[in-house]
Design goal:
Protein name: IclR family transcriptional regulator
Number of domains: 2
Number of helices: 10
Strand content: 15-25%
Distance between the termini: 34 Å
Organism: Pararhodobacter marinus
Structural class: alpha+beta
CATH superfamily of the largest domain: GAF domain
InterPro entries: GAF-like_dom_sf (IPR029016), HTH_MetabolicPath_Reg (IPR050707), TransRegBhcR (IPR054844), Tscrpt_reg_IclR_C (IPR014757), Tscrpt_reg_IclR_N (IPR005471), WH-like_DNA-bd_sf (IPR036388), WH_DNA-bd_sf (IPR036390)
GO molecular function: DNA binding; DNA-binding transcription factor activity
Number of strands: 8
CATH class of the largest domain: Alpha Beta
Pfam family, one: IclR_C
Largest sheet: 6 strands, antiparallel
CATH topology of the largest domain: Beta-Lactamase
Length: 281
């Protein structure tokens, strides 16, 4: 086994992080920067906020928040609407976020597959991956229909109330899954699965048939059908889905819509060199 303190190891460590890189105490954090990131994240989750509202809801003084906002504005990470007196997320934040997506070819390779899926089903196609225990939607191809689902890139959703989320949960080992479910299951509609027994039964069904079905579990009037995408290690790295109103995505239409969704997931898996793992018991 290679020593952690040999010259080569020290050289690799020095290139990207100092010796005490895993020390997260205050001596290795910049409080002002951390506060700025909190403000940025807070604004990004909302559509325009007044300075006083931001300060009150975050428990910070208005003067402190204002200095943070002006600093972020100088980098185009936030912008100020002088007429409405509201602060918004800025264009630079989108540019930085887009660079995150370029870390992998997943999004780029998914686009033509999602477009084909949208055309085959007539419904909006979505691509999502897990991020901090939630589903992060990273790409979407909208249907041409007037009534449609809308999950813009950057949207976060609870996994147990999402088609993609349930498709990913179904691929987890039982121990990891139990840890996730121990956090509790929030109800969003009367159809949300909020007990472990109900969700576990649904996940078993997902594994058996190969796709997940969100039956108005996040939003009343909307349904979603999703399937997992696998990476080179055989683990689920993303999910692909179609979503639409219950008037078109009827219960009777689910089986027919599931086939192109699963085909799209398989095509994307192959495109990134992935291979599905062995079925879980």
């Amino acid at each position: 086994m290679e020593s952690q303190d040999n010259p080569e190891s020290r050289k690799r460590r020095a290139r990207g992080r100092p010796r005490d890189w895993d020390d997260k105490t205050s001596q290795n954090t910049i409080k002002s920067l951390d506060r700025a990131m909190e403000v940025l994240e807070y604004i990004s989750a909302r559509q325009g906020m007044a300075l006083s509202t931001i300060a009150d809801e975050m428990g910070q003084s208005a003067s402190t928040v204002y200095r943070v906002l002006v600093t972020l504005e100088g980098r185009d990470l936030v912008e100020f609407d002088a007429e409405e007196q509201l602060w918004h997320i800025g264009p630079r934040a989108f540019i930085i976020g887009s660079r995150f997506l370029r870390r992998t070819s997943l999004v780029e390779r998914a686009r033509p597959i999602m477009r084909k899926l949208m055309e085959a089903t007539g419904e909006t196609a979505n691509l999502g991956m897990e991020r901090d225990g939630k589903v992060l939607f990273v790409s979407q191809v909208e249907t041409h229909a007037n009534i449609r689902a809308f999950f813009p890139p950057g949207t976060l959703s609870e996994m147990h109330a999402s088609g993609i989320g349930k498709a990913l949960l179904a691929q987890l080992d039982s121990e990891i899954l139990s840890q996730r479910l121990a956090r509790g299951l929030q109800a969003f509609t009367p159809r949300t699965l909020v007990t472990q027994d109900a969700l576990m039964a649904d996940l078993a069904l997902i594994r058996a048939r190969g796709f997940a079905f969100d039956d108005e579990e996040r939003n009343i009037g909307m349904r979603c059908i999703a399937a997992p995408v696998f990476g080179v290690t055989g683990e689920a790295v993303a999910g692909i889905s179609v979503s639409g109103p219950t008037s078109r995505v009827t219960v009777d239409a689910v089986e027919g819509l599931s086939r192109p969704v699963m085909e799209a997931a398989r095509a994307l898996t192959q495109s990134i060199g992935g291979e599905p793992r062995q079925a879980l018991s």
